[in-house]
């Protein structure tokens, strides 16, 4: 018996080794590392926005018409907007908004979608059927169109945009987990715990679900980018964050009125969205290779 | 299962989905806070006038009764009265939908016509220059915010180089048959009108297509590489068949079949992103109409736009599935 049961110390060693192996595999791809670097930079920008921003007080309501729409210069590296606010400073604060919004949407989507997927996959039956038919209905329209319809019922604010996107996003997780559970529930370890007399709840949530986490993590990483893309789109249409919030989509919408003269006001915030989405995609691809999972990426996003 | 049964079953499948969607959107839109009717009539309207319009629109009845009245109308093509345009929503849809259909269809066409050859090139030159370029282009294409790309194109091609018109759809061709400007100008045998419409369409359609183009390219590449490894490809090569014949006649056919279903789903992306691209180019389409309806709490407009988008999406998926079932009989049994 003693040879079989690993001590806690040994377990920890194997776990560290497992992590090392994953990191090693992750490092093999330059693109994965690039994604990791971009996302690390975006997170740092979000956390230290007040310290990094040259003009932190420009993030909110601030007006200085003497310096409105100034081209990029040594004082304002990325120029100023129509109210004379420093675009770089606002973009740094915008990273906070996008990251928090993306996280919140995906936390809701996972919290709602994953348990439903487990129930539909493991319990099956009429309840399972009903759940999957409901996801069919939600997936019958592109997420952005559904989110738009929901914002019609709410006032256009950042929080409501978040609610609307989460409302359209959870079925993807139900689908993903449903498929995972269907294939996992036939495996031997499930059979074994059923033989040991474990309850359905225990098998579904303690035995099966932990084995389904890696595709969920990969999808969450990829979706972070797509959720940010969707939310900036909603804000761009004036149905999400409202001025003077330094949300990237809102900034593009504001800057667009001053094209082509003040090209910097609309272009730089877009670059921030692009790089963030690219970063999450690369990171997600890297994680997918490490965890060796296949998910339908072409379906993700808006 | 023969092809006809498959077709019938697949067609019947979309009815409950659209029915469910109509309930979902109806419920969502009826919980709108505030009073859209008062908003539409303006502040000068008396309470009596507001009440009258509410009664006219049936808003004083219970929600379930309202839904069935709406549904009965919708199947006959009556989507109710628009609080924004003060016309029947169905009339508005007829005016706005062709513009979106034209935009998304041309974007799909660009994605396939450009994406397929690039995908083949990347597969044939695997791990060489063209393949690396295609990988980078694909990564960029998927991550680019379409509305931002649209603005960049406007800046470069319209404002700077003055090659293409900045916004709008251009003048309507002299004949109105389908509402699709490209088709109508051809029907009228007016090549000049066709060329003008094409110029207005070029930037929006390209901006919209980029993500789908990237996906098509990568899928064709993956499919081609998979097919190249098969025995039949080896056999064809060993017979000494010309490489181009093998690639275009045998491999591409199989690789494209797998891409087909995904094209149907990508049409959803195009419809979703049309909202953003239409906003940038003031393209008078369904999404443009929908966003306007949203701002004015015109709930009949919002419901109709969502259902039409859902229906268009479902129909395109149905079409690709049917095509798929036709090309590959195995899927009929799934």
TrEMBL record, chain B:
<dbReference type="InterPro" id="IPR035906">
    <property type="entry name" value="MetI-like_sf"/>
</dbReference>
<keyword id="KW-1133">Transmembrane helix</keyword>
<keyword id="KW-0812">Transmembrane</keyword>
<keyword id="KW-0472">Membrane</keyword>
<feature type="transmembrane region" description="Helical">
    <location>
        <begin position="303"/>
        <end position="327"/>
    </location>
</feature>
<feature type="transmembrane region" description="Helical">
    <location>
        <begin position="103"/>
        <end position="124"/>
    </location>
</feature>
<dbReference type="InterPro" id="IPR000515">
    <property type="entry name" value="MetI-like"/>
</dbReference>
<dbReference type="Pfam" id="PF00528">
    <property type="entry name" value="BPD_transp_1"/>
</dbReference>
<feature type="transmembrane region" description="Helical">
    <location>
        <begin position="136"/>
        <end position="159"/>
    </location>
</feature>
<keyword id="KW-1003">Cell membrane</keyword>
<dbReference type="InterPro" id="IPR045621">
    <property type="entry name" value="BPD_transp_1_N"/>
</dbReference>
<keyword id="KW-0813">Transport</keyword>
<dbReference type="GO" id="GO:0005886">
    <property type="term" value="C:plasma membrane"/>
</dbReference>
<dbReference type="Pfam" id="PF19300">
    <property type="entry name" value="BPD_transp_1_N"/>
</dbReference>
<feature type="transmembrane region" description="Helical">
    <location>
        <begin position="200"/>
        <end position="220"/>
    </location>
</feature>
<protein>
    <submittedName>
        <fullName>ABC transporter permease</fullName>
    </submittedName>
</protein>
<feature type="transmembrane region" description="Helical">
    <location>
        <begin position="255"/>
        <end position="283"/>
    </location>
</feature>
<dbReference type="GO" id="GO:0055085">
    <property type="term" value="P:transmembrane transport"/>
</dbReference>
<feature type="transmembrane region" description="Helical">
    <location>
        <begin position="12"/>
        <end position="32"/>
    </location>
</feature>
<feature type="domain" description="ABC transmembrane type-1">
    <location>
        <begin position="97"/>
        <end position="324"/>
    </location>
</feature>
<comment type="similarity">
    <text>Belongs to the binding-protein-dependent transport system permease family.</text>
</comment>
């Amino acid at each position: 018996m003693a040879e079989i049961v690993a001590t806690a110390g040994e377990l920890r060693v194997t776990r560290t080794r497992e992590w090392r192996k994953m990191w090693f595999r992750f490092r093999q791809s330059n693109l994965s590392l690039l994604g990791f670097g971009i996302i690390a930079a975006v997170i740092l920008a979000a956390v230290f926005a007040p310290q990094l921003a040259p003009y932190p007080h420009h993030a909110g309501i601030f007006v200085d018409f003497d310096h409105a729409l100034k081209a990029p210069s040594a004082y304002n590296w990325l120029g100023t907007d129509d109210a004379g606010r420093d675009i770089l400073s606002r973009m740094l604060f915008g990273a906070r908004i996008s990251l928090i919004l993306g996280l919140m949407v995906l936390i809701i989507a996972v919290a709602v979608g994953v348990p439903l997927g487990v129930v539909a996959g493991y319990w099956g039956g009429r309840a399972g059927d009903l759940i999957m038919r409901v996801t069919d209905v939600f997936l019958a329209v592109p997420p952005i169109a559904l989110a738009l319809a929901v914002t019609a019922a709410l006032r256009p604010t950042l929080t409501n945009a978040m609610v609307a996107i989460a409302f359209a996003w959870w079925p993807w997780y139900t689908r993903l987990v449903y498929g995972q559970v269907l294939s996992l529930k036939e495996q031997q370890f499930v059979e074994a715990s059923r033989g040991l007399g474990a309850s359905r709840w225990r098998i579904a949530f303690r035995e099966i679900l932990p084995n389904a986490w890696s595709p969920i993590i990969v999808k969450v990483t990829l979706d972070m980018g797509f959720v940010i893309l969707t939310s900036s789109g909603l804000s761009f249409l004036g149905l999400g964050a409202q001025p003077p919030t330094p949300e990237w989509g809102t900034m593009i919408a504001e800057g667009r009125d001053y094209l082509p003269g003040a090209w910097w006001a609309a272009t730089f915030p877009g670059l921030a969205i692009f790089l963030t989405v690219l970063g999450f995609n690369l990171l997600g691809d890297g994680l997918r290779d490490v965890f060796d999972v296949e998910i339908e990426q072409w379906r993700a996003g808006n | 299962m023969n092809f006809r049964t498959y077709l019938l079953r697949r067609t019947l499948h979309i009815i409950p989905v659209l029915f469910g969607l109509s309930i979902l959107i109806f419920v969502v839109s009826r919980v709108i806070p505030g009073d859209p009717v008062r908003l539409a009539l303006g502040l000068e309207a008396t309470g009596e006038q507001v009440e009258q319009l509410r009664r006219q629109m049936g808003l004083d009845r219970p929600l379930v009764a309202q839904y069935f009245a709406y549904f009965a109308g919708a199947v006959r093509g009556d989507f109710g009265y628009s609080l924004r345009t003060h016309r029947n929503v169905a009339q508005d849809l007829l005016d706005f939908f062709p513009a979106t259909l034209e935009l998304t269809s041309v974007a799909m066409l660009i994605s396939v016509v450009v994406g397929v050859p690039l995908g083949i090139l990347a597969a044939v030159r695997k791990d060489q220059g063209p393949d690396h370029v295609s990988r980078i282009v694909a990564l960029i294409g998927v991550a680019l915010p379409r509305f931002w790309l649209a603005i960049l194109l406007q800046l470069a091609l319209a404002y700077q180089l003055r090659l293409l018109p900045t916004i709008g759809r251009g003048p309507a061709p002299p004949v109105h048959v389908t509402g699709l400007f490209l088709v109508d100008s051809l029907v009228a045998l007016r090549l000049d009108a066709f060329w003008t419409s094409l110029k207005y369409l070029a930037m929006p359609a390209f901006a919209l297509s980029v993500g789908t183009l990237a996906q098509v390219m990568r899928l064709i590449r993956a499919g081609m590489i998979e097919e190249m490894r098969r025995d039949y490809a080896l056999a064809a090569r060993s017979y000494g068949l010309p490489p181009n014949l093998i690639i275009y006649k045998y491999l591409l056919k199989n690789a494209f079949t797998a891409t087909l279903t995904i094209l149907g789903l990508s049409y959803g992306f195009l419809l979703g992103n049309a909202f953003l691209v239409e906003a940038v180019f003031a393209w008078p389409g369904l999404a443009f109409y929908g966003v306007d309806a949203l701002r004015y709490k015109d709930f009949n407009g919002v419901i109709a736009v969502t259902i039409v988008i859902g229906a268009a999406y479902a129909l395109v998926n149905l079409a690709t599935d049917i095509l798929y079932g036709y090309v590959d009989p195995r899927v009929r049994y799934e």
